[in-house]
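Limitations

Structures in this collection are predictions, not experimental determinations, and the ligand pose is part of the prediction. Treat each record accordingly. The example that follows, with EPU as the small molecule, is included so readers can see exactly what is and is not provided: the inputs are given verbatim, and the output is the predicted complex.
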Amino acid sequence: MFSLLPYNTFGLEVQADAGVVVRSRHDLQLPLADPYLIIGRGSDVLFTDDFAGTALIAGVRGIEVQHTGRSFEVRVGAGEILDELIVTLLQQGITGLENLSAIPGTVGAAPIQNIGAYGVEIGDYITSVEAVDLRSGQYVILSREECCFGYRDSYFKQHKEEKLFVLYVNLSFPDRFIPHLTYQGLKDKELKDAQAVRAEVMALRARKLPDPRFVGNAGSFFKNPVVDKNTVERLRAQWPDMPVFTAGKDRYKLAAGWLIDKADCRGITHGHAGTWEHQALVLVNRGQAKPHEIVSLGKYICTEVAHKFGVELVPEVRLYGRYGEVEWNSL
Ligand code: EPU
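Predicted complex:
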């Protein structure tokens, strides 16, 4: 048995039948016996059960930097910790990822969800992703366009059947600091350099989000729902102060945290699971929680929000059951 406790930030005591830390592509003994799953640090994952197969842990290390012309080209092993990468880059004067400071997780997982925070998405900086197709054993390189980045979305999520194991992520950064201060909490601050942005982002996160080292959680549990104009108008008529963000033509993003909060689900506790007092979108393990307790709290929240607002919440975290990834609606 292989404990998945170090590989899920919810802090659930789940196990896989076996586990392999993949430090280079040669650690992949192909073809693999089914079922298997690919994981970094499990910071965006909910295990709904023990896993009856092999967990492949992304463990490729290394950060290579090249200064070419007016940019820095950086190749990073999928097993590097994203926040450690940000620190290393800032030490070398390479800026761009500071808004993503303190997000838990690995570099290899970042393009899968196209992680984002405080006005920046990792996909903005990725030039390509190197991976192994675990079915054929072929080495593939996906360009940024081929990665099809969207809001918490990418080619990797859209084509789960392809079983792409990310080995390296290539990124490009301009060789001067370009601040991204569109987020409400950063707008009016005097942030003169990237280190100041990092410090402010870390302070913001500490106010709103629980640190998974102390309180098990996987960040936002649901995505912010994207809806049409009619839905916004219907809701705004009743809740004029509801936050709404534009998200393309006739598309509007609602704040799931606000909806959950207004549905009286902020800071609640069901069994050993709960929602964070300062950010209702974050489900937490209050200690010794079992997977089914997190699932049933999530279901309860969906029902309350659907009942009050007529809006469907969809998980942002990926769900893994006994034999592999599972859909929320099947639980
Ligand atoms: N809000 C409430 N009550 C709550 C939570 C939020 O009223 O309990 C309101 C806030 O006041 C704000 C709005 O809802 O007006 C949005 O909240 P916030 O700014 O905290 O951001 P979010 O939309 O809830 C998203 C990302 C976060 C990311 C932040 C900052 C998603 C699903 N989540 O959260 O990402 O850190 O923006 O950019 O897009 C993650 O993906 O795990 C994650 C934490």
